[in-house]
Design goal:
Elements (H helix, E strand, L loop, with lengths): L5 E3 L8 E3 L4 E3 L2 E3 L2 H4 L18
Antiparallel strand pairs: 1-2, 3-4
Length: 55
């Protein structure tokens, strides 16, 4: 049996894979940071290379 310890950030256009122990949890879903978890209120992305989640 395997335990899932990492998941893709729940933000659709984000490519990040986050460790569940470090993830920002919101509504039971893991996000790589506050910007993704809050829906990018200021249009700022997570800052990780290749992610277009601020667009």
């Amino acid at each position: 049996m395997t335990t899932v310890t990492q998941m893709k950030c729940a933000c659709e256009s984000c490519l990040c894979v986050v460790s569940l122990s470090d993830a920002v949890m919101k509504d039971g879903k893991p996000y790589c940071g506050e910007a993704c978890a809050n829906g990018h209120p200021n249009g700022q992305g997570c800052g990780h290379t290749g992610c277009e989640c601020s667009a």
